[in-house]
Amino acid sequence: MSDEARLILSAYRPGGQDAGDPAFAAALAAAKNDPALAQWFAEQQEFDALVVGHLRAVAVPADLRSKILAGAAASRPRQWWRQPRAWALAAAVLIFAGVVGLWPEKDAGLADWQRHGLAVLGEIVTARQPFDLQNRDAAMLTAWLRDHATPLPVALPTPLGGKPTLGCKTIAWDGHRMSLMCFDLGDGVVVHLFTTERAGLAHVPADGPARFARDGAWTVAMWNEGDKTLMLATDKGEQPLRRVLQLAAVHTARPGFAQMLAASHL
After folding, report:
1. Nearest Cα to Cα of residue 263 among 93, 70, 78
2. Within this chain, do residues 234 and 139 fall inside the same structural domain, yes or no?
């Protein structure tokens, strides 16, 4: 029922308008009896509410309706592939998506330091190598890493704050140090955050939106944050990484984010 309930609840509006809708009754009842599903639903509602709030802040042009109607009236059915402007529009959409990061790049490739970090993570997962510190409190891990002069992000991505942790480790590679912190998101999903100093690395991700890549069983998202380079990894595919990054983007309310979302829904 869990997968079916998630599919149904993904359409549940954050304002509570659907509370009495019989279509949601069984899925809502399942969420009350399933802690993992309840946690997922709460996070889904939080994200949806934040997106709605940002979209409401976007001013709608007063003449938008008249322009749409005028365009519809002037249009004539034609085979789209014979219209040069359609090709130009398609190209513009692809360029726009690349600029704002609506479609983050996949299979961007990993640098040697990233593969080394994943190799160490693999040994931890298979119990061939221990954490430096095991603790369920992220504050304890960050304090330990800071005391050992290990690079840390300026701030943990908001969706990871308050999540229980498994442990942390300092990893050395070719004169560089990187930190590893592992977070339990629940429902069997664990994500692993690597942070290292950007200076001196031969290969770093391009500035801009997070870039996605795969290495064996691992899917990673990588990006730069000031003088640090970060990599988030999981063996559960892209979806958990995308959700962490989407929630982090909404919480930080970076300039233009609401407009970007509005543009993606036109």
Report:
1. 93
2. yes
